[in-house]
Write a structure and sequence with these properties.
The complex is a heterodimer of chains A (about 260) and B (about 400). Chain A has ten helices and twelve strands. In chain A, about 40% of the residues lie in helices and about 30% in strands. The radius of gyration of chain B is 21 Å and the shape is globular. Classes of the chains: A alpha/beta (about 260), B alpha/beta (about 400).
Amino acid sequence: MISSTSEIILSIEDLHASVEDQEILHGVNLIVKEGEIHAIMGRNGSGKSTLSKVIAGHPSYKVLSGSIQFKGKDILELEPEERARIGIFLGFQYPVEIPGVSNLEFLRVATNSRRKELLKSELDTFEFEDLVNERLKIVEMDPGFLERSVNEGFSGGEKKRNEILQMALLEPVISILDETDSGLDIDALRIVASGINRLSQPNSATILITHYQRLLNEITPDFVHIMADGKIIKTGNRELAIDLEKSGYDFLDKTTKEKEVTK
Amino acid sequence: MKSSTICKEWLDSLPTPEGYLKNEQSIGREFLLEKGMPSKKDEAWRLSNFKKLNSFLSLPTLIDSEDVQFIFPEKDENRERIIINPNKNPILDINLPNGIEKLNNREIEDNIGTIVKSTNIKNDISVCLNQASSSELLALKIKRNFNQSLEIVIPSIEGKSISTRIFLLLEEGAKLDLLQIFTGNKNSAQNHLTEIKLESKVELIHGLISFGEEKESSSICTLAVEQSEKSKYSLHSIHHGWDYARFEPRIIQSEGEASTIIKGLQVTKSKEQIATHSLIRFEGPNGKLDQLQKAVASEYSHCIFNGSIEVPQKAQKTEAAQLSRNLLLSKRARIDTKPELEIVADDVRCTHGATVSQLQDEELFYLLSRGIDNKHANSLLLKGYYDEVISHFPKSAGKWNFIEKLIQDIKK
């Protein structure tokens, strides 16, 4: 799906960011073009989730320097809801439970916010039910989950399916999926991965944040990045993920040391 | 002006005791004359805003017929509506569905005040204010084994203070779905007393929506319920929009073996103060209580909850759970919550808990990250917070637009 004329969707340059006055990102650089699937791997605490939250505009994270551009436009001044509306989607590692808020109503309001941005007509309850029932099939989700409160009492797998359902409804330009594979059994992983694959479009892109190579058996990434200490320290193709799976993160320490020796 | 002087002046402004409530009026007035208005030294009133309470008593109590102008949403076709018009004798002027009858004078005499007496354990001022000034009573019985829905509307009158009183007797095996609506008006006060007696095997679902809406409206409302064995009572209440409101539900399970569910919500903004003082007393074994009290306070407002539960020696095997959950939406708002459990029986299961929190940032970010704007996200979260209480109201209550009112003027 990638061609030399593909447009750049996301461009991150020398991004430094902190949370609670502690700098977590120490200069991240990343370019994502249309049609691309990127995987970001790395140890716990390497800054992967922080990067995803910063892109989505979480108010607890502060950008210290650097830039994030979406389709050539600086998004750092945009509120999280504005980023979402222009097509930035964050699939949460731990989707939040919101008691008392109907999942169906939440999905409808969110979908209409995005449709408004796309200059599409807003959907009334009946029209939305038709749409959501069609999209439920992508994640093989029981319609009963629409009647419940947002993520309340959902199992880990059901929460992740609900995330992909939102992705299917919002039709984002870029989806950043933060450990969507964590807590999933093999069957659920296949369903979720197949959903992500079906939703990939030539003019959209996906960033998968993951610990394990098993998700990448289901979704083939074009690029694999390894993060450590708040930076992307290595970029390669799918082979890099396979190497990582074989030798563990220790091989990173080795390569880092080698670099230091060469210096 | 001193509160004792205000109370005296208020009592002087009332017409001479007369009619079939003459005795009740005298009891209330004598008590108030002797005891006067409460002060900060009275535990049950110490957090009360006395300035607001005094202004409650400063409004005229005489109603002219031209004062009374009400516009209400259309009534539900399956639910008979009674509007308490303080200018008329409500007993003479209502159509009642089959299965609901007015109490005759003898029945009124036999029952009046008995429930107040049995539930009125610690403080009597709210009740006495009503006894002293109510000149009419809506007294109904829901006949044995009947299943009815009823709506009772109690409106306020601009510039006036009104007193209204209701007595309901639910005969054995009766079922009632009761929706009680209190509305405020500009510069108005209402003082209300409802007494309900549930005979055995009665099921009463009681929705109570009380919204002031207008500036300077205040309300003092006492609800006294006596439950016989095997009766089930569910109370779902909302108080919102009053400059000053005090709600005192007092429920007694007179023989134990009964079940009580209470889901209450009070929402304040601006400089409002709304208080709920509940008392549930078990007078026999195997009683059950499930109580949830929620409060949301924004701007400079103040919410108070005092929840007493009394389990004497004879109330063995009582199971009572009380939870007070509170949401503070501004740094200047205040919430006081106090559970008060008095347990003498030794074989019981009683739990209580209280939480005060703010709207969860992670919940808000989750909604924002889906493109939902801040205002809409906040109202979705609030609606979610209210849901545990409002989901129990019948669909027809939606005509009163209470959910919209609860959400529209809350500012974070």
